């Protein structure tokens, strides 16, 4: 009997739904969800800083709970992954260092209208002008263009923008950037600015007003309209758990993927069928099906 059962298996256990491009979806995953690829990297810096692998783990779960179909890895996505992706989230050190094959894939992805979301120093590389054409802004590797850890106070530039619905003028302990290379015609839309604090590395840039959260809409020659959303912080990994920041990132991801801006924030998981594993349905007041009941996610502190 066991041999007969094994012989009848045509796909791995738990992969029951059909996804975009014929790729299978894990059992229970939202078949209509936006497709997200998280491009992470190996951890760098000290404890609690630049924790790219932890982000890949945490946000794969969080976005799945919010109704997205999530893929990702610690390497650049291949052509097949990009073909079925609405938005690529980049959180890795110096992602601007790409070989020619990867550059061509990125250009083709953005040209067909694919969305990008950048966290922290991912927009750093050897050619910031090249990177800025996709993200609206970028920074040069090897230059002193950062504050190091400091109080970063956001001033929301456009309180009416739907991405910033839950964001206030708050202060976090993180790192800010200046001396950025900006795209022109079109330029970025600043969503939150920071007055560069006086740190030894900031030097004469102290007091400059620099966008640290922005959106960018553009069309590459011969291509389709594309979107990018950028959050320049994330040096301190705990800041991802800030309630206001988390919801702003969720909205920025949905916006970059050309989905309704509240699609991830307001996702309501369908009731689970009763049977093995306990009662069906979700807990009252817990639309994402999060057993902790914490809107910031399992094990995620609500900070303001």
The number of domains: 1
Going across the major beta sheet, what is the strand order? 4-3-5-6-14-13-12-9-10
Average pLDDT over all residues: 85
Provide the gyration radius in Å. 20 Å
Helices and strands, in order, run as HEEEHEHEHEEHEEEEEEEH
Level-2 CATH architecture? 3-Layer(aba) Sandwich
What is the count of helical runs? 6
Helical percentage: 10-25%
Strand count: 14
Q: How many angstroms separate the termini?
A: 58 Å
| Proportion of beta-strand residues | 15-25%
Please identify the top-level CATH class. Alpha Beta
CATH superfamily: Class I glutamine amidotransferase (GATase) domain
Low-confidence stretches: 1-17, 283-304
Main β-sheet description:
9 strands, mixed
**Structure class:** alpha/beta
Question: Would you mind describing this structure in some detail?
Answer:
The protein has helices spanning 2-7, 52-65, 79-83, 100-111, 128-135, 243-256; strands spanning 15-18, 24-26, 35-40, 69-73, 87-91, 115-119, 124-125, 137-140, 150-156, 171-174, 181-182, 189-195, 209-219, 225-231. The protein is an alpha/beta fold and 304 residues long. The strands form 3 sheets. It has a 9-stranded mixed sheet with strand order 4-3-5-6-14-13-12-9-10, sandwiched between helices. The chain has a 3-stranded mixed sheet with strand order 7-8-11, with helices on one face. The longest helix has 14 residues, at 52-65.
């Amino acid at each position: 009997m066991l041999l007969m059962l094994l012989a009848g298996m045509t796909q791995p256990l738990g992969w029951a739904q059909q996804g975009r491009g014929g790729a299978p979806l894990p059992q229970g995953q939202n078949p209509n969800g936006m497709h997200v690829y998280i491009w992470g990297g190996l951890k760098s810096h000290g404890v609690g800083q630049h924790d790219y692998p932890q982000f890949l783990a945490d946000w794969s779960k969080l976005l799945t709970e919010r109704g997205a179909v999530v893929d990702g890895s610690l390497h650049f996505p291949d052509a097949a992954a990009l073909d079925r992706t609405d938005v690529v989230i980049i959180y890795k050190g110096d992602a601007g260092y790409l070989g020619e094959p990867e550059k061509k894939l990125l250009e083709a992805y953005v040209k067909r209208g694919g969305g990008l979301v950048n966290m922290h120093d991912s927009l750093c590389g050897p050619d910031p002008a090249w990177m800025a054409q996709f993200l609206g802004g970028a920074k040069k590797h090897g230059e002193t263009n950062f504050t190091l850890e400091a109080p970063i106070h956001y001033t929301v530039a456009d309180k009416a923008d739907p991405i910033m619905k839950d964001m206030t003028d708050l202060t976090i302990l993180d790192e800010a950037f200046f001396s950025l290379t900006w795209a022109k015609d079109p330029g970025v839309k600043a969503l939150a600015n920071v007055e560069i604090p006086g740190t030894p590395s900031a030097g004469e840039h102290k007091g400059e007003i620099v966008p640290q959260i922005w959106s960018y809409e553009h069309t590459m020659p011969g291509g389709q309209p594309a979107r990018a959303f950028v959050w320049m912080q994330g040096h301190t990994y705990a800041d991802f758990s800030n309630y206001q920041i988390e919801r702003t990132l969720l909205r920025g991801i949905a916006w970059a993927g050309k989905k309704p801006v509240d699609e991830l924030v307001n996702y309501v998981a369908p009731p689970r069928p009763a049977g093995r594993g306990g009662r069906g349905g979700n807990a009252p007041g817990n639309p994402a099906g999060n057993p902790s009941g914490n809107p910031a996610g399992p094990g995620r502190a609500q900070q303001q």
